């Protein structure tokens, strides 16, 4: 392990700038949930400029930061490999070649859920699909950015954003089925992604599912009325 | 109690849930397997039907776990209720009787 500060009081650190463990950067650490993993801060060997960080997601933060090397760190799938002593994290970078820095991972018990899309052949360092990692200790993760070092289809960050548009379009879904339906839809997208379907196919399939559900709802609501109307008008025209 | 009659989708769902409880995607997979991939339900259609069947007392459900992929949306597990199994049995018997009736030519090559 490195000599990085213990991040157990991360929340306090986040709220109180004077207690930040990241004083040597201007970066305000923030909780970033990435597929069950909590990344709590960043340091960089580069000098960073002051920036406002939102709490939403790493994607937002990266977009907000607009720093030279953050710009190069595009929202990309994250893979975390775990063993008893260390966590390793790799990003798939789109443009960066020479990122140097560290990413701190929550010291609290972190449940890492590897999506089904990660296949062992893609990542030899992945030990288990789901694993509870250790007791509160500080951990740091060396981030290495290389172009297409590994590809994890449908990365978690992207998925988080994708889930949003589906959620926004699901207003017509009755409450009683919204949660399982939406969850299954997201899981299905993940499956398609792991099967190697391209993004366009996934979006298309999701759109179809939404349309089918909408049609289903409309039929449930107005279908019988239409049928009755149809029959009645047929009867009238036959008996004119 | 009157045993409700079942349509094709309801029969398939009850068959998929007769052996163990399953959640949405598992039900879809199981139905595809049962029907030799001839029936592929949409998620939306499935849940509309599941909800209706639950209202009719054919199914029982419980909330399950969530996963990171599901973004906090819990799974909902369904299983066939006693009434559902009885309805499935009765409907299957009717179909069997129809099929057996005079070696019905409509079922030629099917049974």
**Rg of chain B, Cα atoms, Å:** 16 Å
Please mark out the parts of chain A with pLDDT under 50 across 5 or more consecutive residues, or reply none.
Answer: 1-163
Largest interface: A-B, 34 and 21 residues
* Arrangement of strands in the largest sheet of chain B: 1-3-2
Helix content of chain A: 25-40%
The backbone outline of chain A, from C-alpha atoms, is elongated
Distance between the termini of chain B: 32 Å
H/E series of chain A: HEEHHEEEEEEHHH
Helical stretch tally of chain A = 6
What is the makeup of the main sheet of chain A?
6 strands, mixed
Mean pLDDT rating of chain A: 48
List unreliable stretches of 5+ residues of chain B: none
Average pLDDT of chain B works out at 86
Order of helices and strands of chain B: HEHHEEH
Q: Strand sequence of the main sheet of chain A, in spatial order? A: 1-2-5-8-4-3
Q: How many extended strands of chain B?
A: 3
Structural overview:
The complex is a heterodimer of chains A (240) and B (111). Chain A is α+β, with helices and mostly antiparallel strands and 240 residues long. Chain A contains six helices and eight strands, in the order αββααββββββααα. In chain A, the strands form two sheets. In chain A, strands 1-2-5-8-4-3 form a six-stranded mixed β-sheet, with no helix packed on it. Chain A has a two-stranded antiparallel ribbon with strand order 6-7. In chain A, strand 1 (32-34) and strand 2 (37-44) form a beta hairpin. In chain A, helix 5 (175-194) packs across helix 6. Residues 1-163 of chain A have low confidence and may be disordered. Chain B is mainly α and 111 residues long. Chain B has helices at residues 8-17, 24-34, 43-55, 82-100, and strands spanning 22-23, 59-63, 76-80. A three-stranded antiparallel β-sheet of chain B has the order 1-3-2. Chain B starts with 7 loop residues before the first helix and ends in an 11-residue tail after the last helix. Chain A binds chain B through residues 35-36, 113, 115-116, 156, 159-160, 163, 173-174, 176-177, 179-188, 190-191, 208-210, 212-214, 216-217, 220, and chain B through 23-25, 42-45, 47-48, 50-51, 66-71, 73-76.
